[in-house]
Amino acid sequence: MSQADTTAMDAGGDEMEQCIENCLTCHRLCLETVAHCLQMGGEHAAPAHIGLLLDCAEICQTSANFMIRGSAFHSRTCGVCAEVCARCAEDCERFGDDQQMKDCAEACRRCAESCDRMAQMAA
Asked: Does this model's pTM top 0.85?
């Protein structure tokens, strides 16, 4: 294996590690945000919004697990994760000045971007 191949593999590994970290952070923040939203009530607790947060948390956990164990299917879960996270970020952003919602949207955007890169790398 050439030095360039090794460097490329290391860069891909670093990117995967960052993606795993982003997925786990997003998973945690989405679950924390569900609790926040249920406590807030009203639009925050709308079934579609809560469902999207739970979907996002679940696909983030799944994508992280697939990458951690080196599954050949991780690029596919990452592709779905990127889509769900992007949708969740948009939904959270509509709550304006609510800091929890802003933090969740930011984590979702970061995860969507890194998962999209992982999905593209393996494609």
From this structure: yes
